[in-house]
Amino acid sequence: MEDCDLWPFEGKVVPGKLLPVVLARAGSAARLLFVGTRHDPTTPLGNAERMAKHMTSPLLIREGDGHAVVFGDENDCIDTEVGRYLNDPDSARDKTCA
User: Where are the domains of the chain?
Assistant: First the structure.
């Protein structure tokens, strides 16, 4: 048994098959802002790219290695764009920060 077998699940159960919940964003909710790093060894950028596409949300990419840290004085561009998003979610757009 896997650990995730014990997690609550609200999907449709069909004998012999497990159908996952489809992710969706309420029409009235603000778009999400996904942030990823080009060479993150733990959370690959491809994951953020797929989620941003699936949720029709903007993607903010930090060029570099490791994790993207927001408001940690690591990258002014990331901090500025996330701050802009928090003040005005409609202003968010795809962007790459060096």
Answer: 31-98
